[in-house]
Each structure stands twice: as C-alpha cells, then as structure tokens.
Amino acid sequence: MEVKYSIEDSVLMLNLDKEYGMQIESVHFIPLGDSAYSYWVNCANGERYYLKLFDHQNDGQRRSIERLRFYLPLTWQMYHQGLFRNITYPIINRNGCFKTTFNNITVVLFNFIEGEILAEAYPFSKEILEDIAKSVAAIQLITPFIDKTTLLANTFDISFESDLEKCISMIECTLTFNNPIKQALRQVVLSKKEQIFDLLNLVRKLHGISIADTKEKVLCHGDIWGGNLIRHKNELYFVDWESAILAPPEFNFVNYIGEEFDVFFSAYEKNIGKSVTLSLDLLRFYSYRNHLRNLTNWLMNILHRNTEEVQNEKDLEKILYHCMNRWDSIEANVRAVDALLQKRK
Predict the structure, then answer these.
(1) Regions of the chain short of the pLDDT cut 50
(2) 9-112: which CATH architecture?
(3) 123-344 is classed CATH 3.90.1200.10
(4) Bridge-partner residues for 220, per DSSP?
(5) Residues 6+ apart with CB under 8 A from 228
(6) Cα–Cα nearest to 240, from 5, 34, 26, 20
(7) Is the dihedral of CA 7, 10, 14, 16 positive or negative?
C-alpha cells in the first residue's frame, strides 16, 4: 500500500504495547505490498519488528486475514522446528495468538530481517538465481515434515473470473469517468478487452487440464519475486508467505521461465537431487492465471477499494508495466523452456 492506514501512530503503539507486552518506541509506515499495510516497529530495548496491518473494511484485506490461519502456523513451525529458518515468522501475543484484532483492524507482528530487498535487483545475477533455486528445493524437501492440516492445497483457483468480468463490464458501461486515472484505465482495458477474454478462456481450458494432472503436491512459497526476497550477509531470506500452498512444483517456476530458466532449473535439479519433469500446460496455467488474477485485484482496487489517488496511480502502473506488458512473452517463454528440456534429454 502506498498510503498509510488512517490510525494514529500513538494509538497503534498503545495497542501493541498492551497486546504484546513490549515498550514500543516508534512505528514507521513502509509503502510496499498489496495485501496489507506495512510498518516497522522499534522497541525501547533496540529490538525491531515488521508489522502487517489489515483493514476490515477492505474486502481484499479481509481475504488476506482469512489466509493468516494457514501460513502463520506454517512459518512458525518451519522456523521453530528448524525446517527452514531463513523466513519471517509471527510473534505470539500475550494471549498466545499469532494475530491481534482491535479498532476494526487485524495486525500481525513478525521478526524483522535486515538486508537488501531484491525488488530492484533485476535482472538477477547467476549467483542470486542459484540461491533462489537452492532455497526452492530446500522448501520442497521439507514437505513430508510440515503439518499439512493447516495448509491450503492447490485447487487451481480461478474464482477471480467473475470479478474480472464485472470490472470490465463496469468500465465498458461507463463512458466517462470523472477521474483521470480511471479514464486512462478505461482506455487501456478496452484496448485489451479481446485479448483479456481470449486469455481468460485459455485459463479456463488449462484449468481443466491442470485439475486432471496427478503430479505430487509439494510445499511452495507461491510468490517468489524480488519483493519477497531479502539478501543479508550472503544469506537469502523468504518473506511474505501469504500464498504458501501445496501445489505441483511448476508453481515455483512461473517467475523464472525466461532467459534465467536454464540457470534456475539446473540449480533446482542439483539441489532436489533428481531429474524433474515439468508440465508445460501447468506452466502456462500458472503464468496466465497469475497475471489475470493480479489484473483483477488491481482493477478492483482502482474501481472499488482505493481512497487515495496516489494508490490509483500505483495500481495503474502495475497493470501497465507488471502485467499487460508481459502477456505476449509467456508463450514464447514456455516454448523456449520446452526446447531446453528437449535438448537436455
């Protein structure tokens, strides 16, 4: 989120003191992320924490609150049982709970990880790609040891499709928005309308193929991009486990099927300890599905959720430069992956 939540810092600090038994010295808003408001929290004893704040009035953030019950126990177990420790995990409050609710918000406190967030480190170096792949393999290998009863299993969800269709219908029916960002959004979306529905139909077709796939499900982080990776003292840390899920391994590869695929996949196979067969249709499904789901979320933000123009500008920028501009490269990337895999046989 680009604009901080409308709560006084003093009120937030007072409630954190009460719920966590900490002497909070200051809180600082961090303008990043889509699913919650982010802060870092400084304590009088010098300790620092990362805070996620969820607004109960925002339907997208309410869905994020629902997912807390899956990934907070998971990351707590992963860290405290030593399964995988380079992660953010929740701090328990005075009541022994992972989350805290007050003033129509829910907050979660996490350990704070120092280091460089890799959101601006693209294109990744060979060393970084190999470190990411090594961690992906390590996370997959702990699958037998995690408590799967608290973890979401992949259903190849495309429930966003109804919201996407409604957003496009609203944009189409509104000839003129009394807002320059929304008017610019209208022009962009309508120019891509045919392609959007073609991709949506393709995702529906691939959805049926994916459901029929019998590949073993493994633990996946679910959103491995630079903004969820922190590098500190030659160690790589994975943060924001909101999308963690039991899914086919292909789910981990969707952000790495471009020029970096050979390096990434070679390091992954080396660390997983065996040859791996990938389904091209699963790669297609996850790639197109993720882009359309992101598009839907940003459309919903601009049309229904956002209250600040700066957030609208940021979400439109994401639609243009982190979504629509990447659609045409997906099929070419999948074909390149296929050619590389055939060559390796």
Answers:
(1) none
(2) 2-Layer Sandwich (3.30)
(3) yes
(4) 245
(5) 221, 238, 239, 240
(6) 34
(7) positive
